[in-house]
Amino acid sequence: MSSISILKGREQQIYQKGSQDFDMSCEKKSLAGSISQRACVFCGSRVVLYPIADALHLIHGPIGCASYTWDIRGALSSGPQLHRMSFSTDLQEKDIIFGGEKKLASALDTLIDTYKPKAAFVYATCIVGLIGDDIDAICKKASQEKGIPVLPVHSEGFKGTKKDGYKAACDAMANLVGTGSVKDVGPLSINIMGEFNIAGEAWIIRDYYERMGIEVVSVFTGDGRVENIKRSHGAALNVVQCSGSVIHLAQHMLERYGTPFIRVSYFGIEDMSKALYDVAEHFKDTCPEIMQRTQALVREEVKKVYPILKQYKQKLKGKKAAIYVGGAFKAFSMIKQLRTLGMDVVLAGSQTGTKEDYQVLRDMCDDGTVIVDDANPVELSKYSIEKGVSLFVGGVKERPMAFKLGIGFCDHNHERKLSLAGYGGMINFAREVYASVTSPVWQFAPRKTIEN
Q1: Whole-structure pTM value
Q2: CA distances (Å), 103 to each of 107, 133, 151, 247, in order?
Q3: Cα separation of 91 and 103, whole Å?
Q4: DSSP state of 366
Q5: How many of the other CB atoms lie within 10 Å of CB of 185?
Q6: Domain span at residue 243?
Q7: What is the pLDDT of residues 247-288, one digit of tens each?
Q8: Taking Cα atoms as reference points, which of 102, 95, 86, 93 lies closest to residue 137?
Q9: Are residues 145 and 226 located together in one domain of the fold?
Q10: Which 3 state secondary structure label does DSSP give 162?
Q11: Which residues are in the Nitrogenase/oxidoreductase component domain (predicted)?
């Protein structure tokens, strides 16, 4: 393999600690031709809204967009399964020429009568933005006729990045928040935000908080329910994990309802414990004994997992890892988790990080670590090879690249089926990392190098 070069125009979004001044460029549209790992605006909106299990999700656009379904972005439900069904208006050439509004109205009428959802979300795709269908008017009329919220989601893919899709989803949910009764919501109450229950994590996190004596009013949006979202403004605190996806809604609730929010992470022993302690700290004046309950909970859980983690650390110490995830806030936790296992992070990046996020990432990383924003496969391959990476932590799009390079892989995205949050999740993470890095299969896939 010959030396890999970087596309002109991408230099300002790549930083190597210790070798240059920090001047990271980010929050910009992907460079044309770079084959970015980012997803589109529509994708971002679906990530956030799809886990609401008792709502109807209708894609207004060509059938291809409907391939982005529940089974691709997992989200478990303890009850309704309506979110598992992917509906589309299946716009054809004739609809694009003459407009698809009648088709959308007919689809909503049929689907709402058939499935009796608590609410309906209508996703605008690229072509709908181009032909100008008035989905707001169609949704308003359907809502009046059917007596349920029918909410437009302006997620036309061409108008921005995945992050704009997050905002579109938050704007849609903001129309639900504040429309329900809060008379039975107690003073020790929270909303869990940015948790999508990919492999049951929302249930694990909810259990921790309930053991502390905290009432969970709503989860945004894992195992979500429309009625809980409607009454979520009654909670005393919003606890935000995936900040990039729901921070817009948290800020909206702060401004409109005065609901404060804190940012947390549920990955790894250190951040999981801090998340619980931060919530306890917020409520300690209202409930003085909550801190003691939290300390007991953390002590009990850490005691279970720490001896196991020590065993994995002995086997993984000194191995090098690369991280590429959706939001930079998750990367912070990944670095701490891998260090707990004795591994060194030599490449870290995200799709939607801010300048402040990358400043924190720079401070966390060791000298020589490469930090990338909105990377592409060429860049990820280049630095993985140059740095001698043994493990790549990413999502489904990075997996084939890692395997082709003979590098172990850990799926930490929405496609996974294994819980990685909480204390038990740290054990699952360690086990998967160990199995992947030390698998005998790599003897049949010799590591690529720049020279050969």
Answers
A1: 0.92
A2: 6, 11, 17, 34
A3: 8
A4: P
A5: 18
A6: 189-300
A7: 999 999 999 999 999 999 999 999 999 999 999 999 999 999
A8: 102
A9: no
A10: helix
A11: 40-437
